[in-house]
Design goal:
By secondary structure, this protein is α/β, with parallel strands linked by helices. Helix content is about 25%, strand content about 25%. The strands form six sheets. It has an eight-stranded mixed β-sheet, sandwiched between helices. The protein has a two-stranded antiparallel sheet with strand order 5-6. Strands 8-9 form a two-stranded antiparallel sheet. The protein is globular, with a radius of gyration of 21 Å.
Length: about 350
Amino acid sequence: MKHFILVAGYPQPPKSLPFRAYCENRVQQHLAANKAKEDLVFQILDVGNGENAVRTFTYPGGNRTETRAALRTHVRVTRAHYDGNAFKDGQVGVMSALDVYAAVQEIGIRKPGTLMELSFFSHGHAGGPVLVNSWDDGQYDVPGDPPATRTRFLGADLRDPDDMDPRPKDFRAANMEPRALAAFRAAYHPDAVNWSWGCASAPNVNEILHKLELHPDYRASGLADDKVLVFSTLSPANVADLELMLRLKFTDPRKVELPFGALRQYVRRHLLGSYAHALAVASGRTTFGALIGTFAEPDPAGPRPLMRVHPHFTRHFTFYRNYFGFTFDPERRWYGAFRPTFT
C-alpha cells in the first residue's frame, strides 16, 4: 500500500488560494495515473481547518472502493490568530510543521518504505512553505512563568515554539533527534519525491540574477568563473545581500566588481540555505520546488488545477540549468529538482 501526505496551508488573505482543493485535485491526479490499481492512502493535513483527513483506495476484484476518515485534531485558524498578516505569538493548538514531520515519522515506524510523496500546497518563500505565516524570532514567552522571567531567547539552531511554519533548521539534531530523523527518512519509498508548491521569493536574488542576465558580458552558458563583471545599478539591498552571503565588503557599492564565480557562489549559498535543499537532504529524496528568486501561481486552466512556477523566468531557468545542472519536474511545471547530493 502506497502512502501520500498532502499538506494544505492556511489560505491567508489577501492572496487566498484553495490549497485544500489542490490537495483533493492531487488525489484525483494520482488516482487517474494508478493504472496498476495499487492500494493508495492519502493523508491530507489541512492546517486552516485543523483537520487530518485520510482517504484510502483499494481495488478488491479490480473495482475501486474508498473509505474516508476525518478528525479535527487541531483548532481552526481564523483571522483572530493574526495581527495584520502576521501570525501572533503565543497561539496554541494550531497544526504546525512538527505535525507534518510526525505523520511522516509514523509511516517510517509502522509502514517504512511506503511514502511516495510529501507535498506542501501553500504560499512560500526561499526559507520554506508558509503554513500560517508565523515568525521565527527566537523569542518565546513561557506560559505560567512570572512576567519578569517569562521571555526566553532561544539559540539560532532551535525551533521557536511560536513558529508553525517549516524551516531549514528543522532537521538539525537540536530539533529532530537522530532516531526521529531516521524514522523520517525510513518512511520514503525509493521512488518517492517531495514537492513544495509555493513561491521561493527572494527579491535580491531575483534582481541580481536579472541584472546579471542583462549584463553585456554575460553568456547564457560557458562563462568562465574568473570573468570579472562590473555592476553600477545594484540597489543598496542587493549590495548588502551580496556582502552578507559572500562575507566581504565592497569599497564602492556604486561600482561593484565581481568575478562570475563569486556570483555563482552567492546563488549557491542561497540554494544550500533553502528549505527545498534541507528537505531533500533530510529525506534522501528529490524535492521539486521553485528555484530561488522565482514565484509560483495557480494553474491557468484545466479540470484539476494545481500550481506551477510562472514561466516568464526563462532566463533564470537557463542560468540554473547551465551553471548548476538543475533539471525540472516531470510535470513541466518549472519546479527545480533539488537533489540530496547537491553541494
